[in-house]
Amino acid sequence: MDVTRIVIDTDPGVDDAIALFLAVASPELDVVGVTTVSGNVNVDKTTLNARRILELVGRSDIPIARGAAVSLSGVPGNDASEVHGDDGLGELTWPEPSVFESPENAVSLLYRLATEGPLTIVAIGPLTNLAHLVTQYPDVVTEVERVVVMGGASYHGNVTPAAEFNVWADPEAAAVTFAAGWPLTILPLDVTHQATINDDDLAYFRSLGSEVGRRSADMLEPYAQFHEEWRGDRDLIMHDALAVYEVIDPTAIEKEGVLVTVETGGDHSRGATWFHRSHRHEDSNVRVGVSVDNERFVRLLRERYRMFG
Ligand code: BDR
Ligand code: CA
């Protein structure tokens, strides 16, 4: 089996946590680093959450490097704690993790990992670290094998009518990341909203009897309540786990070649992503996710949860 070497740039976040669990449980992936960024909650909390998650799965060997505290425009606190809880992980009680953060910062860890072997960057938070990476180390664009981003929306945002959270939190960084020229796959809300789990899946996670299964169901409960108030149902959108799924099985998500631009101005449209589809762009370095078979995704997610003892 080909194993893909990945680093996950993340702002945990309950759906980020599920993505991390899926990644470490998948033999198709070798997770060689986790970098954190301010997003769903501030970077102190996202870094602590990354430590909690890797401690829970017994992966103290994976370095965790802290990244940006503020967006490129210098704005702190564009958070989503109303979705993920004040601590970012559904406000459960956690033991103090013994897994430490690396003395290296996120950008230097990303660059080092990119120069040490074929690397796929899976970016599931605001893109501030990636923008700093390409600005400080422009040659990384040719070093990296592929970048997979969860972000953007063709049709409707989830923070404003125009903007999806990860792009809205740092539109300038998204613009730099999307224009960098590296092989890029973007999974916007158009496709992540097709990837959902429900109460049966939460019951299944609990039934496994593992701490990962129980905590996943517990941390997703407030997320479910938020979804119910927001959308009127308890279908839980697995935005970030879908990005990991795409790397586990790149054939699982239908994609098309596009040109992409990000709106950084505008009174109402800041953070909007424009996927140019009016012409065919099959030779573009940018591919955008269009559709996914949710039953197949959930089947794999359930299967991987059985890996936790
Ligand atoms: C994205 O925003 C965050 O709240 C989620 O973790 C996900 O990365 C979805 O818009
Ligand atoms: Ca996220």
Topology, element by element:
Elements lengths: L3 E7 L3 H11 L4 E8 L6 H14 L7 E3 L14 H4 L21 H11 L3 E4 L4 H9 L3 H4 L2 E5 L14 H4 L2 H9 L4 E4 L1 H4 L3 E2 L1 H9 L3 H21 L4 E2 L1 H10 L4 E10 L10 E4 L9 E7 L1 H12 L4
Helix pairs in contact: 1-11, 1-12, 4-5, 5-8, 10-11
The protein binds beta-D-ribofuranose and calcium ion.
The site of beta-D-ribofuranose has 15 residues, from helix 1, helix 7 and helix 12.
In short:
By secondary structure, the protein is of the alpha/beta class. 39% of the residues lie in helices and 18% in strands.
Structural descriptors:
309 residues, alpha/beta, Inosine-uridine Nucleoside N-ribohydrolase, Chain A, binds calcium ion
Topology pattern, helix = H, strand = E: EHEHEHHEHHEHHEHEHHEHEEEH
Ligands in the structure? beta-D-ribofuranose, calcium ion
* Uncertain ranges: none
- Secondary structure: number of strands: 11
- Provide the CATH top-level class: Alpha Beta
Distance between the termini: 24 Å
Write out the CATH superfamily name: Ribonucleoside hydrolase-like
Number of distinct helices: 13
Characterization of this structure:
There is one protein chain. The model has no long low-confidence stretch (mean pLDDT 95). This protein is globular. 51% of the residues are buried. The protein is built from 13 helices and eleven strands. Helix 2 (43-56) links the parallel strand 2 (29-36) and strand 3. The strands form two sheets. Strands 3-2-1-4-5-6-11-9-10 form a nine-stranded mixed β-sheet, with helices on both faces. It has a two-stranded antiparallel ribbon with strand order 7-8. Helix 4 crosses helix 5 (128-136). It has a single domain, classed as Ribonucleoside hydrolase-like (Inosine-uridine Nucleoside N-ribohydrolase, Chain A), CATH 3.90.245.10. With 309 residues, it is an alpha/beta fold. Residues 13, 15-16, 40, 80, 83, 124-125, 150, 158, 164-166, 239-240 line the site of beta-D-ribofuranose.
